[in-house]
Specification:
Blueprint lengths: L5 E4 H7 L4 H35 L3 H29 L1 H19 L5 H29 L5 H30 L1 H22 L4 H5 L5 H11 L8 E4 L11 H5 L5 H31 L4 H28 L2 H20 L6 H24 L7 H31 L4 H42 L1
Parallel strand pairs: 1-2
Length: 457
């Protein structure tokens, strides 16, 4: 066997190459996985009125069905990270997308609240596992110079899926009943899982920290740069000067990483409290404010539509300016717009629609960028775990937001009051993200004297 004659840093190699058709394929498949998540999140909200009519159940009983999926998402994310760091990103992604499809199809056959709740929880496990795995995989194949816009564009699949889910539900429910929405939400992920299994490569960085994977890595990198030769290479995964030893979760919770971990958890938790309260209850809030059903649905759909555009713009800005400050600024602007929306509920329809669009644009971009940001602050061995635990802990905020919205409506809170309240946690989330940059600066400051000492010893 030939001995390696040169060492090749996988990430540095990817950073130096053009964005190839192979990487476009990875971006597209992960985008579709996120679209399945977004479709599911929108669809369940739209079938609630039909369930109330068909089953004769109270509104608050279906709040538990909404929260069951969110709870499953949190648990799925927490479990998926360590698993993806152990067995591979692709394996976990295929299983999670298949889980979404199978249990969504099963939910379409439910005839009681209890059975529907169980299947929604199981669907949530797949949804939760797919998101951090997709973010990690896309991030590891994105060149550093365009990583922000690539990862954020992929996460736009969630907002696109929400738009499609709303439009599909509006047509399917009157023509084929609410079960057809869940069937559509099951068939799609099953097909996506098959595509991922056949066409998606495993993460080259993940393979680079394991033994006996030279041939697999060479084949993958050959798809990115066909003109290159890798016969005598030793592949490594760069850690950017940061040591990464031990179990993935232990590393994420270690003394070195714990401050940034807790801040990221807090930021994403607060973000999802705000986001899911609005996503789940905005149509009801506007209906209670005097909007008719069609106007309420139209205005609400502008929120995720704005998110698609805002997420791409924010990713582009993250690549050209400091990523942390870009996200922090998005939060500050989002808090301001959330407050203004609350004071503008009775304003002219066009003006109010523009405000909702802009609010969705900055709040969604802040949320998606925060979910992608952890991939920049954890090393390869713990990256999937770090991302997954941020998303998993944050998803408890989604559950809290869904319940909080129901409680505030029960107490008689108006749209203006709810939006005014939500400006505060939005601003706090921005402060937590900004504090992560302080932790990173402090960690780099500790490394420099150590490096200097080594050089002079």
């Amino acid at each position: 066997m030939n001995q390696p004659t040169r060492t090749l840093d996988v990430q540095s190699f990817i950073d130096g190459e053009r964005f190839s058709p192979c990487q476009w394929l990875i971006l597209t498949l992960c985008f579709l996985a996120f679209a399945a998540d977004g479709f599911d999140n929108a669809a369940i909200g739209y079938i609630v009125p039909a369930l109330i009519r068909d089953w004769g159940v109270a509104r608050d009983a279906l709040g538990s069905v909404m929260s069951a999926a969110l709870l499953g998402v949190g648990i799925g994310a927490l479990a998926a990270g360590p698993l993806a760091d152990r067995v591979g990103r692709k394996t976990v992604l295929v299983l999670s997308i298949a889980c979404i499809g199978v249990w969504s199809l099963a939910a379409a056959q439910a005839h009681t609240i209890g059975v529907l709740l169980m299947f929604r929880f199981l669907t949530g496990l797949g949804l939760g596992a797919a998101m951090p795995t997709g973010i990690t995989l896309t991030s590891e194949y994105a060149p550093e110079r365009i990583r922000g816009v690539v990862v954020n564009s992929m996460i736009c699949g969630f907002s696109c899926g929400m738009v499609i889910g709303g439009a599909a539900s509006a047509w399917l429910i009157p023509h084929a009943g609410w079960k057809s929405v869940l069937i559509a939400g099951g068939v799609g992920p099953c097909l996506i899982a098959l595509l991922v299994a056949v066409a998606m490569p495993e993460s080259a960085q993940f393979l680079a920290v394991r033994q006996g994977t030279h041939a697999r890595i060479a084949r993958i990198l050959k798809r990115i740069a066909p003109q290159q030769q890798f016969d005598n290479c030793r592949f490594v995964a760069s850690q950017r000067g940061e040591p990464a030893r031990g179990a993935a979760l232990a590393l994420v919770l270690s003394r070195r990483y714990l401050p940034r971990t807790l801040l990221l958890w807090a930021a994403y938790f607060l973000t999802l409290v705000v986001y899911y309260l609005l996503v789940n209850w905005m149509p009801t809030l506007f209906h209670d404010a005097g909007f008719d059903a069609s106007r309420s649905a139209l205005v609400t759909s502008l929120f995720p539509l704005g998110g698609v555009i805002g997420t791409v713009i924010t990713g582009w800005l993250m690549d050209r300016f400091d990523a942390n400050r870009t996200i922090t600024f998005a939060y500050v602007l989002a808090a301001l717009l959330v407050f203004i929306v609350g004071r503008s509920v009775g304003s002219a329809p066009v003006f109010f629609g523009v405000l909702i669009f802009l609010c969705g644009m900055v709040l969604t971009s802040a949320a998606t960028s925060t979910s992608a940001y952890p991939a920049r602050v954890y090393p390869t061995q713990a990256r999937a775990t770090g991302v997954a635990w941020v998303l998993g802990v944050g998803r408890t905020g989604a559950v809290a937001g869904a319940f909080l919205g129901g409680e505030l409506l029960t107490l008689g809170w108006r749209a203006a009051d709810v939006f005014g309240l939500l400006a505060a946690p939005t601003l706090l989330a921005g402060g937590a993200v900004y504090a992560v940059s302080i932790c990173l600066s402090h960690a780099r400051g500790e490394e420099e004297p150590t490096t200097a000492a080594v050089k002079h010893s």
